[in-house]
Amino acid sequence: MRHVRAACDAQLLIAGTGGLQRALEREVQALSLNDHIRFLGPLPHDQLADLYNTCDVVVVPSIVTDLGETEGMPTVILEAMAAGRPVVASDVGGISDVVVDSQNGFLVPHKDPHALADRLVRVLNPDVSAPMGDHARKTAHQYDWQQIGQVYDGMIRTLVRP
């Protein structure tokens, strides 16, 4: 966040909670970033759309654990894209199935804070974020339940035709 703040005026909002929250809060304090990073805690699902709409970009820094475990494709990515927000996310699990690098967001190596910060600075430029946001919205539309239902309906009808 120090790198991002050096390049542009940005604020980081962290929704949710987890085992690392206290350590992260201490680090934010130690780095004097209190005025630029806010921990929102867990939010009800019905408040997430409002949160996405206040953001310029959504960041999903997923990792692969030492046991080789990672997320599949976090729902938050499609929710953010449905709000027309580009996503900067780690290139792990199924994330690259939805985030197309440099089109609807950016993919970065996991556990690489420098690459993450560089891509955030790039996407915070409105000339970059506006077209990415448009692509993000189109991507999310492809995963809309009605769209998926129509695809399955067509496949089933093709399979059961006499």
Secondary-structure-derived class = alpha/beta
**Using DSSP, what is the number of strands?**
5
Would you state the CATH class?
A: Alpha Beta
Mean pLDDT: 94
In the CATH hierarchy, the architecture is 3-Layer(aba) Sandwich
Q: CATH homologous superfamily, by name?
A: Glycogen Phosphorylase B
Instruction: Quickly count the domains.
Output: 1
Computed over alpha carbons, the radius of gyration is 18 Å
Order of helices and strands: HEHEHEHEEHHH
How much beta, percentage-wise? Answer: 5-15%
Q: What is the CATH topology? A: Rossmann fold
The rounded distance between the terminal residues' Cα atoms is 60 Å
Count of alpha/pi helices: 7
Explain what the structure shows.
The protein has 162 residues and is an alpha/beta fold. It has a single domain (43-160), classed as Glycogen Phosphorylase B (Rossmann fold, 3-Layer(aba) Sandwich). It contains 7 helices and 5 strands, in the order αβαβαβαββααα. A 3-stranded parallel sheet has the order 3-4-5, with helices on both faces. The chain has a two-stranded parallel sheet with strand order 1-2. β1 (12-15), α2 and β2 form a beta-alpha-beta unit. α4 packs across α6. The radius of gyration is 18 Å and the shape is globular. It starts with a helix and ends with a helix. The relative contact order is 0.13.
How are the secondary structure elements laid out?
Elements: H1 2-7, E1 12-15, H2 21-30, E2 37-41, H3 45-54, E3 58-60, H4 75-82, E4 87-90, E5 105-108, H5 113-123, H6 126-142, H7 145-160
Helix pairs in contact: 4-6
Brief characterization of the structure:
The protein is of the alpha/beta class and 162 residues long. It has helices at residues 2-7, 21-30, 45-54, 75-82, 113-123, 126-142, 145-160, and strands spanning 12-15, 37-41, 58-60, 87-90, 105-108.
